[in-house]
Amino acid sequence: MSAYGPKQTCACALQESALTQSGHDPCAASTFGFKSLSDRVESVFDRIGLRRVALVSGIAYLGLSTISVSEDAQVTSGQLLFNNACRTCHSIREGDNRLGPHMRGIVGRKAGSLPNYSYSSAMRGANFVWDEETLERFIANPDEIVPGNSMKPYGGLASAESRVKLVAFLKTLTADQ
Description:
The chain is mostly helical. Helix content is 44%, strand content 0%. Helix 2 (50-85) packs across helix 6 (160-171).
């Protein structure tokens, strides 16, 4: 009997030819009083209390990675929405103004302030900075936020869920990218 439990001998250790060329027993990993390597690992985890730590760490990792995946999925969906609803008039490349101004760095930018774009007088006169809430409301109904804007024929995006995804994507378009 060893300190780790009853000694088990594997079948290959009983054969004289079981030693490798270097003289090592290929079954030595399983002859220290345990039936298998997994029994040894389990014993170490039990003795030191690491089983609980490993379990809690694994659960925490899965929880955090789910949040990250959820945010990534929202941004990806937002990019698809942008491509389908906005890209005809807007670009995500800085300086690439089309019918509408580029969206790079929109969050935190004063409305109607890009130097190389010809805004409507209504948008130039808008006195606010684009934030998540203002963008979401504008995307829902541009005429309500800036009456007289030039976003025709765009009338708004009805789905609140889609607007949240679109704004999540627009937030990733920082000016320093």
